[in-house]
Amino acid sequence: MPPNEEAAPALLIERNARIQKWAKALPGPLRSVIRAIWHAWLHLLASRAWVRDFAIPVALTALARVLVGLLEQQGLEALGSNAFTESAFDISVLLATMAFVRWSITWGVPAMMANVRDIAAATQEPKREFLRELSTEEVATTRAIVRGLTGTGYRVEHPTELRPWFEKFFDKGGGEYIGVDSHGPGDYMAQFEWFLDAHASSLKDRGIPKRDRRVLTTPKQELALELRHRKSDYQSFYRWHLDHFVDITWMDSHKAAKLRRRYGIGDADVALWENFAVLFEGDETGCLTLQMWFPGEAERGGTTYERISQFVADILGGSMPLEEVAPGLDLVDRELAEEWINYLDPKRRSSDGVGTFLSEALSGSRFVLDAAGGIGADSVHLLSRGYHVTTNEVDELLRAQAEQYASSQGVRLNMIGLLWEDLPDQLPGNMKFEAIICLGNSLCLVDDTRSRVQCLRAFQSILVDGGTLVIDERNFQLMLDNAHSIEADPIANFPASTMGDVMYQGKKLRGYPAHIDRATRTVSWRFFRNSPPIENRGELEARRLGGPDLLLHAFSHGELFDLLKQAGFGNVDVYADLLPLAHDADSMPDLTAVGQADFITYVARI
Ligand SMILES: C[S@@+](CC[C@H](N)C(=O)[O-])C[C@H]1O[C@@H](n2cnc3c(N)ncnc32)[C@H](O)[C@@H]1O
Fold first, then answer.
1. Which of 54, 290, 376, 430 has the maximal Cβ count within 10 Å?
2. What share of the chain has pLDDT > 90, as a percent?
3. Domain containing 255: what range?
């Protein structure tokens, strides 16, 4: 662009800066009053076009006329009664008002107006239709962006197009950046690496070390799943933050959801700077809708810049460094963790059958891993029988219960908290065990076949030669085959729901398959209080525990047996409600042999 064309906006900006400097010289309170009046005036002008272009000039002209009338009543000769002077006065006031309105709506944006005027001038020629259309469309797009960002949102179909926008956000945002994002680390890395690039170049441009921060508000389970399925993206994301000195913390999504509601943030992710906040919300089609809020502006869409800042401060205050978040499972909520003891009833579990069964299954083994420790009932039982037990519990609420239960029994657990798939890599000192137990219908909590095999292989690889895995499942085939009658009346058609079963013998808290999805082979397991004992289906809902259902993979008949073989276990014995079933070494006993048993247990050897 030739220098003289750039000069006009530069001069205008300079003039504007002069006005602002002059305004700064006024006393504070006066400045606030002028600013408030000015903002109210701009607000009025921003309303409908007919108000701005017609109603305001006419009203101001009428007002001027009333004032003149008042002056004349005071005996001051203002216009006299000459129709010509009166009309000339009215027209002058009207034109002056219109000019003032025009000037008002553009006074803060001289550089932009200079450009618009230039475009208008350069496209006026009758033959320049093409240029006129092109620039009209471009200006209309800009208008839609500005209106969207400051209104109900601007929707972008391909989020990667936003990279230059975010470069600008980082450039103009001022101060430090704080982001609140609902994506998991792996997902973030895969989808928004371009955003991290924009962030990185802003950090470079800003030079001075900044304490930018990013908080993830993802369900803990998602962190665990990502660590399982997209480990390298997860790690790259984490490393990016270390490399760029950006704090990365995490807050549980349930906790964040409460704050989101309190501050009117909805489901949006937040990018906050000193000069503005950007909220962006994705939808299932992959589009992103952006909105902006600026300090000191009125509430819009249930929030303001100040409320967004407070939201971000609360999220930051309640978050913890990502590296300190055990990549555990958020399997149970606090209420269920505390009540698990009433579901399991440790005394009855170790005396009625399970204790004897374990003694036989583990005979010859001394070093045992209780892979799904839960509240530590089986570990405590085995420790009291002289086994060397390592207890693994990855859910921190259950882990706390296990420690509490063990100390109530005068025992100290040797605890670890690892995902099964990580056991081979992360067990301290490359430990190996003579036996592993994984009881209480636990493997079905792993959500896909590939991962279930991976877990079984992990178990296999940390057993010594000839070691034993004791693992169980509920009789899911029975549930799948009787889904309709069980769902219709679980109390009548699924006796374990109130009577207890061989593994979970507690009476005060019970669980039942509330929903059995045969197509996806998933069971939603729901817990309810059973004290006093429930009598009919109708009471189930009222006694339901507050937390979400456990989602269980419903193994088909023989599926777990086959997976064990696939994972390298050569010899697999099968038990129905802890009683041995006769079968060929290479095949699962018949469905009829399993019958109505609640649990199927496998004692598998390498
Ligand atoms: C239904 S509870 C059973 C707990 C205990 N064995 C009992 O009988 O009460 C399921 C257990 O599986 C564990 N679990 C599920 N998925 C896991 C995974 N991928 N890695 C490690 N533990 C897992 C949970 O932490 C929990 O201890």
1. 376
2. 61
3. 153-324
